[in-house]
Amino acid sequence: MMPDKVPHDLAEKAAAMREFGRLRAAGLPIPVELRARHVWATNDGYATGPDPGQRIPEFALPDQSGAVRTLSDLAGPNGLLLVFHRSAGW
Amino acid sequence: MELEQSRSLLEENGVRIAAVSYDSQEILGAFAKKHAIGFPLLSDGGSETIRRFGIFNFNMSPELRAYGVPHPVEYLVAPDGTVVRKYFVANYQHRVSGAAVALREFGTANPDAPAVTLKSGALAVRIGFPSAKAFAGQEVAFFAEFALQPEWHTYGTPLPPGYTATSIAFESPSVVSQYLELPPPQMLHIPILGETLPIYTGSFQGLGTLLLKHPLPDGKLILPGRIEFQQCSDTVCEPPQVLRFKLELTLEPFVVAEPRK
Q1: Contact between A87 and B65 using a beta-carbon 8 Å cutoff
Q2: What is the ipTM of this complex?
Q3: Of A39, A86, A87, which to mutate for an interface test with B (greatest number of B Cβ within 10 Å)?
């Protein structure tokens, strides 16, 4: 399990995300430099979790209907595509 | 939503879909209803499961709405919980689509998938997308099926000067970046030249991805491109050739997410 990291420059990263989001929401072109800075701001130090061959952690999470789901009831005969994403609410 | 559009492609191959975010069950319910989502959206309030997977995004300042999000990883998990494949693109602007996963894992595409076949001499190439629909900013998969007549070959990489490798390039300002993955070539040793060359023979398939620009207007997007190759037999090499093609995608709107201002 990875220890909690305390990365530097959170304010700088937040500023890059705000600027990027502002331009994108306005439909304006995004300068290459800002695009690169946004990639850095959102992906710095990224980790991707368990590798092929490793087991995923066990989980039990409620779905949109309130039913608690685990891997065994989610997976099809050839498995499950488990997608982690930002948010459905933005 | 692209995952919902590609769900049948995966389910007919025995793979189901589930998505995880930090949203509440209420928010997920509203989203599922609005977008007619037919697969489970799992609520990981507080991001506890996200942390246990080791993919918590530590770049988000605590006051941001984005605090608590994961890095956008996708896992193809076997029924016993083992990771079969991991999909991740280090850029929040796009993610690996369900259609790309279906294409890479099972070689399947939608019936409406746009494709075109080009022929020249001993080579035939069928190039296309697994689905006609895409979103601005999406990483779109494409496939290229090559078929060579017997005794003819084309080249892979790396090559000495004077030979042309097999490549595909989309030529559109709407494409930010692209990458084509070809299978490992066979090595052909030519004693008389003292060279060993990477070659392709028979039928082989390439899988590529291209990143669409964001923003782009909704509606039809024409993507021209070219295929470059050089076909040679045991006795003769043709000059390098360029075949041009055009493929069409239909861009649809997607939910734009951005950090709180």
Answers
A1: yes
A2: 0.89
A3: A86
